[in-house]
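Attaching the record inline, Q. Sequence:
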Amino acid sequence: MTQKLLHDFIVAEHIENALKEDIGYGDITTDFIYNENDKIKANLNTRQDCIVCGIDVFEKVFNILSSNVKVTKFFKDGDSAHAGQCLAAVEGPARAVLIGERTALNYMQRMSGIATETRKYQDAIKPYTASVTDTRKNTPGFRMFEKYAVMTGGAKLHRFNLCDCVMIKDNHIKHAGSITAAVERLREGLSHTHKIEIECDTLEQVQEALSAGCDIIMLDNMSVEDMKKCVKIVNKRAIVEASGNVKINTINEIASAGVDVISTSAIVAAAPVIDLGLDIS
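Structure, as predicted:
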């Protein structure tokens, strides 16, 4: 997923709905205080160190409101910015700038927060080579922006939605009777283009998942010592993913087990919002 995959028409539709929600029947404050000919200049400043993300979405908000708003960007997505730096300058009709201000900031503050938190987790893995990935614990309706922010922060993506990849969990195994039976049922109708991932709690399940021919084995809430044993058992015959109890102070030890991927909801669900402000010049 790259920036270009945030297609203009999808982003525009999302922003238009967000603006409708915020504006309602009109900004009764701005409309009465400013007239149609009033102009305004403002600077987008960050009050915290951050990884910039969503600056093109920020610009798009104003472009939708008025083609006469000019946004000059001094940073691009993925850049590191320090508290006090100006990320962009906004100039144009006062009504459009002030009406779009909150919506534009909301997108960028959230996306920059996720990118910043993601970068912290990916950096915390060093010197190990595992990749951090997100999960499906997303904000409803905001998933594409959150996943884009994860990639901007330097991590990789887990499945985008339920139809991306097979994920066999405890409930599926219990209903099918075993890992082997679950995989057999899936292979009867599954497309050859889909990978199969199996959530495993024990070394015995890892052995069975391998025998069933799965592509990815998720080690769920295992100790680091057990993860090391599983990595040896798998011996690169499948991708090994660690999940559960992944925090900024535990991720390095988890990575030391030799797993390929570490998935965590914390980089999205627990990411703080970056304090950005649109300050009138």
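The mean pLDDT is 95. The radius of gyration is 23 Å.

More tomorrow.
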